[in-house]
Design brief:
The complex is a heterodimer of chains A (about 260) and B (about 250). With about 260 residues, chain A is an alpha/beta fold. Chain A contains 8 helices and 9 strands. In chain B, helix 5 crosses helix 8. The chains are: A alpha/beta (about 260), B mainly alpha (about 250).
């Protein structure tokens, strides 16, 4: 399995020393009744990297993400979270805002849940800071139905970030938005990721868009149609911000496309 | 809220005018169909007292049934076995005609308030129960997954997710059962009572006092309408996000 995981392109990013693994998925299989959804899946996420799970719709990549997030129990194999107390924040394809709450109150939700609520005096400050980070400061008191789709996803991102996650799990986070908004939000996500205002140590994003995966990730895991198997991993050692038209990027897009075509 | 319209009021006015003119024109006997003006003359203080009696019976039964049905629904959704075990009984209560049960209620509880309140409650219980159970399960699986990923406890999941999501369902049930409550109270009064609109209807029909009979019927309808619109107004205030998001 380790050969499969080795990069085809040599080392990714020259950040020495070799980044340590935060999350390791080893030989995980999953069945829904009789249907095999994940077939001996092996994936690793390292400190400081942005990885994408790329594959056709319905291939089980979202399921794998939810497995990593602990939302779906696995039938076989194991998931190792390497760092102690690693906090994982999940963001879904739909914004899933509560319609009876304002943006601010929606962002505060994670701090209200759990056995120990964390609604101290700093909570409000923090929520406002998160709204600034996703550029929604002016909409703190708006209700979800008053926000555009893009703004709703920004609010959802702020709600995920307020938990101070170490790893962000994104399930096609902007997939339901129009292309222009999606590109803009992708760029902002990268800006937040590289900006250092959060304590994020890794991001895992599920997508079925090849250009999106190439534009954002340090490594792209390519999955076959169901049952999902890991086909290949492409390392993309390019600095951010990336220009979608640059020859480097288009080369990686072409390579990824060829790999995916081979599985269909 | 949509802009208030005068159209319904105008229609009622036209119907009353046609009725009045028709009765006069064809000289319909008063004991069969009294003119609206004759009916209006029978509206007096005692009618309002009877209305108040029936209205409070209906309201009490409605309130008790709604609270019990809500609690039962919470228990049903939280514990599936409870739902499986008790739901058939709830259906049995629902399918038994209230008219058939009413004599028994009077036998057990006497001709006072309680037999009417129980009758109203019995008829209100089922719609609220069914809709609340449905509403408590209405939150998307994805919302439940979100709450799961945020480490929500079961009480938090109910308080902050399932119950708010359920509110529109509860309100539509309350609108249905509020008018049923008046029916329940009147059925209870038919069987054995010394006051209330049901009692007034029985007495005036026995004495062929048709104008009084009509004013009692209209009063009963008015009670239902008032309850219905009061709940509708509360709904728009409480479930404020519903109208706005469906625009």
């Amino acid at each position: 399995m380790s050969t499969l995981l080795a990069e085809r392109k040599g080392t990714v990013q020259s950040k020495a020393p070799p980044a340590r693994t935060l999350i390791e998925v080893r030989d995980v299989s999953l069945r829904f009744v009789k249907l095999l959804v994940l077939d001996r899946m092996a994936v690793d996420v390292r400190e400081g990297e942005f990885v994408s799970f790329l594959g056709p719709s319905g291939c089980g990549k979202s399921t794998l993400l939810k497995v990593i997030g602990g939302l779906i129990p696995v039938s076989e194999g194991e998931i190792r979270i390497r760092a102690n107390g690693l906090r994982v924040g999940v963001m879904f394809q739909k914004p899933l805002l509560l319609p009876w709450r304002t943006t601010l109150s929606n962002v505060l939700l994670p701090l209200e849940l759990g056995r120990e609520t964390r609604l101290g005096p700093q909570a409000l400050d923090k929520a406002h800071k998160m709204l600034e980070l996703v550029r929604l400061a002016d909409f703190a008191d708006a209700y979800p139905h008053q926000l555009s789709g893009g703004m709703q996803q920004r609010a959802a991102l702020a709600r995920t970030l307020i938990q101070d996650p170490d790893v962000l799990l994104l399930d096609e986070p902007f997939g339901a938005l129009d292309e222009l908004t999606r590109e803009l939000l992708n760029e902002e996500l990268i800006a937040i990721w590289t900006g250092g205002a959060t304590r994020l140590r890794a991001i895992v994003m599920v997508t079925h868009s090849i250009p999106e995966a190439v534009a954002m990730s340090d490594r792209v895991f390519i999955f076959s149609p169901r049952p999902a198997r890991l086909v290949d991993v492409i390392g993309i050692p390019l600095a951010h911000p990336r220009n979608a038209e640059s020859p480097d990027v288009t080369r990686f897009v072409a390579e990824a496309r060829q790999l995916i075509r081979g599985t269909l | 809220m949509k802009r208030p319209s005068l159209v319904p009021i105008a229609f009622v006015g036209v119907v009353l005018c046609v009725w009045e003119a028709g009765v006069k024109l064809f000289a319909v006997p008063e004991y069969l169909l009294p003119a609206p003006s004759v009916i209006a003359e029978t509206v007096d203080r005692s009618l309002f007292i009877q209305l108040a009696v029936t209205f409070s019976e209906a309201l009490a039964g409605f309130a008790i049934a709604s609270i019990l049905a809500f609690l039962a629904a919470l228990a049903f959704v939280r514990f599936r076995t409870l739902e499986q075990g008790l739901f058939p009984i709830a259906i049995a209560i629902k399918t038994t005609p209230l008219v058939a049960l009413a004599p028994l209620l009077v036998l057990w509880q006497g001709t006072g308030w309680w037999s009417k309140i129980t009758a109203a409650a019995l008829i209100c219980f089922f719609p609220v129960l069914v809709n609340t159970v449905k509403g408590l399960k209405a939150a998307d699986a994805e919302y439940l997954q979100l709450f799961d990923s945020l480490g929500a406890t079961r009480p938090q999941e109910f308080r902050k997710l399932r119950i708010p999501f359920c509110l529109p369902y509860i309100f539509s049930a309350l609108k249905i059962s509020s008018s049923l409550a008046v029916v329940g109270a009147i059925v209870g009064e038919f069987v054995g009572a010394t006051k209330g609109l049901g009692y007034l209807i029985m007495i005036s029909s026995a004495h062929i006092e048709t104008p009084t009979l009509f004013s009692a019927i209209f009063a009963a309808a008015a009670a239902g309408i008032v309850l219905f619109y009061a709940i509708g107004a509360t709904e728009r205030f409480v479930v404020f996000w519903q109208d706005a998001s469906s625009e």
